[in-house]
Amino acid sequence: MKRTFDPIETGIIWSRLVSVADEMVSALVRTSFSTMVRESGDYSCMVFDSRGRLLSQGTASVPSFTGTGPATLAGLLKAFPAEALRDGDVLLTNDPWIGTGHVYDVNIVKPIFLSDRLIGFALSVSHLADIGGIGYGTGARDNYEEGVCIPPVKLFEDGRPNRFVFDLIEANVRFRELVIGDIYSNVAACTVAAQAMTDLLVEYDLDDTAEVADAIFELTRSAVRDVLKGLPQGEFRSRLPVEGVRDDTKIELAILITISDGKVTFDFEGTSPIVNSGINVPLCYTRAYCYFCFKTIVAPNIPNNQAILDFVSLTAPPNCILNAERPAATGGRHILGHHVAPLIFGALEEVVPLHVQADCGMICQINFRGRSPAGRDYSYILFTSGGYGAFADLDGRAVLPGPSNMIGIPVEVWEENTGITVVRKEFRPDSGGAGEHQGGAGQIIELRNDTGGVLDATFFGSRTTLPARGFGGGRAGSLRSLSLDGRPVSPKSRTDVVPGSVIVLHEAGGGGFGDPKRRPVARIEGDIKAGLVSESYAREQYPDQFEKQRDRGSGIASGRGSR
Predict the structure, then answer these.
(1) Is residue 471 a part of any domain in this protein?
(2) DSSP state of 175
(3) Tens of pLDDT along 461-506?
């Protein structure tokens, strides 16, 4: 007999399932060997029901990974059907077209059993320090150069490690301790989830997760349908130019969004074709950011689950740059993939202005490979951020990443692990776009190679020629710039950094939202006092407010009559 759940009981179990995913995150972070996971949050953890439907994600997970997770599990179960799995099995893949879009992310899945019955799955994803090939970057000409691509395999079978798989990985990576350690960390996270899930079912006297999942999904569908009924129906288009590998090359992204009959469809017809370098985006990654945008618009306060994703469909021409097919190089797929969010928001700017965001300054990455003064070989990513794009009713935050949510590593931890000194890290004044709501400021970061040896540095940057756009009359943010010893550095390049050399990053500002003439004087004064804008910039961007204050005999931020 099918069990029924009232809304209160459903909500309680739903919250517990989110807690299970959060426990996975805690286990992964505590046991991780690399700073990418332990400090920067380059991971996601998810829990699925016995039918492979997403139940919950860790609260602090990366949108792209949670968006690819359902298809990753489906791909693994296609290779290893659920009925053939046993307790103690653990599956692995880093195939870009099954996983997260590039080979550097490992996907670990553990089927969960209770009394020999399959009751669900745990999936953990994290970025590895290395996977062989030419190393993390955009310089590969095809996927084969980027490293070892591991198809779906059993990493553990009946609880026993598959030595061939471990030996294969160890034989092909540069930093074995970091890589194998992080793989085991992902396994540990899934093991924690398995124990928590079985405890939950025993506590609530449940035989399976599927029935409570149905109740959760029905609550979710009802909430999403109500929002969709209030959205304008129709077709909405947008185009967005994006920098290519070189500053003088441009890529065009295009989208047609159709809102009709309680569904949202994203069509990327008209998008530029793939290129001969590692910035191509497999469709799984594009889909993830369609999910992200859909959820932020229709269900921002509902925990993520399968029912939300089922309202979304998408199409893209084969081998356009947002639907790159094998064996296209995809190592830096996030550089283009992150632009899916502003592309979608741009199409809906006038449709749902209260639910979209002006463009963000976006993250910049530098992958450093070297040896610390303590003699430890490493490959670590430094994630830096531009300013957050503003909203129709809210300023963009300074130095906040979007649409990804990577964490800036603490300076002390970074210097201890790498031997790279952070000489300067401060707000970049005047970088956020003006508007009724100001775009977030970027930052200035100065790094010095104090390792005593040569560093291999690979840059992943955008917004160097095309700034973050403002919406609703708001102005664009400032451009990003990168330099090495005073000379400009290409934002998608790889170079040696000799001892004592200095890298300086000027991070891009976020776009503003709304007519700058409507920005309150008090907000302008606050920005000046906080060091986010200079008085000269404020006079230039908000002349009407200064003129009004002058006519009244008071001054902005100078203290003349401001009190």
Answers:
(1) yes
(2) -
(3) 999 999 999 999 999 999 999 999 999 999 999 999 999 999 999 9
